[in-house]
Design goal:
Blueprint (H helix, E strand, L loop, with lengths): L1 E3 L9 H7 L4 H9 L4 E3 L2 E2 L11 E4 L18 E5 L3 E6 L16 H9 L9 E2 L8 E7 L2 H12 L4 E9 L6 E9 L7 E4 L5 E12 L3 E8 L6 H8 L22 E9 L6 E5 L4 H20 L4
């Protein structure tokens, strides 16, 4: 991993610069023990070396545990963005993000190992955000430990913004900020329910209607918190469950899953810090329903809703 030193960092110690870009003390210690762990303009240096504008600082960051247990699946993932430090993938519906019981080889993680392993045998996906199996859309993946640390910190600090498109039952015409608590239902280890904020984890969602009929509406959802099933619970709480949501509404013949798509992702580049904006196009199953109710204008609006 390489950093080009900018004028604002001229005169800083390598140690201080590494801290500023998110290198943990434990990772820094590992780099110091490697012969080529820290290189400045191609030469080995200590963390007390002084940086100058234009210098190239290289870190030999390797995954200590390659993807030996992740079996590659011969599925080509749709990459929305690919850099040496991160990927953004458009996850299809009906695909788990990572392996779990009953899903050891058919996940997004397996597909990424197949695609990236051909150029990087030690690649291991480090997911910054995750989506339910039946939620489609943009997933941010770090390609190495430092990228994961920086992006995970950005997530905790609220610097990563997410936007979703959903098809919901009934007519939704008014924008709203939904504020509730969310807690686990007593009779279930899976289901959640809305409650007053003091009785559960605070959950905030911004709701923006786009198109509406009496039967169905297309809405934008922008979660301000990240509770389990938050968007699905909030829409059901409002009386407008997401189309096809068998947990919080009912199945629907028009779509074989809940009609929820992670269409928009905003995050700081883990190296430059510059704002990065990603749009994930509407998947075919949701596009079919949108076209049925709202025509081609609906498709165009859906795919530019976060522009």
């Amino acid at each position: 991993m390489e950093f080009i030193i900018e004028a604002r960092d001229h005169g800083r110690l390598v140690r201080d610069y590494l801290r500023s870009v998110g290198v943990s003390s434990s990772l820094c210690a590992k780099l110091k023990r490697r012969e080529e762990g820290i290189l400045l303009n191609g030469r080995h240096v200590t963390v007390l070396a002084v940086l100058q504008a234009g210098d190239v600082l290289s870190l030999a960051i390797e995954d200590a545990s390659p993807s030996e247990k992740l079996l590659p699946a011969a599925v080509e993932p749709e990459l929305l963005r690919k850099t040496p430090h991160y990927l953004v993938v458009n996850k299809p519906p009906d695909m788990p993000t990572h392996p779990s019981y009953g899903h050891f080889t058919d996940t997004l993680a397996n597909a990424l190992v197949f695609a990236l392993g051909r150029e990087d045998a030690g690649f291991r996906p480090r997911f910054i955000n995750r989506l339910d199996r039946n939620t489609s859309g943009a997933v941010l993946v770090a390609r190495h430990a430092l990228g994961a640390a920086v992006l995970s910190r950005a997530m905790v600090q609220g610097q990563i913004g997410k936007g979703y498109l959903a098809l919901v039952k009934g007519r939704v015409e008014a924008a709203a900020t939904v504020k509730t608590g969310i807690r686990r239902r007593e009779e279930s280890i899976i289901l959640r329910e809305a409650c007053v904020p003091g009785e559960g984890d605070l959950a905030l969602t911004e709701l923006i209607p786009l198109l509406a009929t009496d039967a169905l509406s297309l809405v934008k959802l922008k979660p301000q918190t990240g509770r389990t099933h938050q968007l699905r619970v909030h829409m059901a709480h409002l009386g407008h469950p997401i189309l096809g949501d068998e947990l919080y509404g009912e199945a629907d013949d028009r779509i074989g899953r809940h009609a929820l798509h992670a269409a928009h992702l905003v995050f700081p580049d883990p190296v430059s810090g510059e704002e990065t904006v990603i749009h994930a196009p509407l998947p075919s199953d949701m596009a079919t329903v949108v076209r049925e109710f709202f025509g081609e204008e609906g498709i165009a609006l859906a795919n530019t809703a976060f522009s």
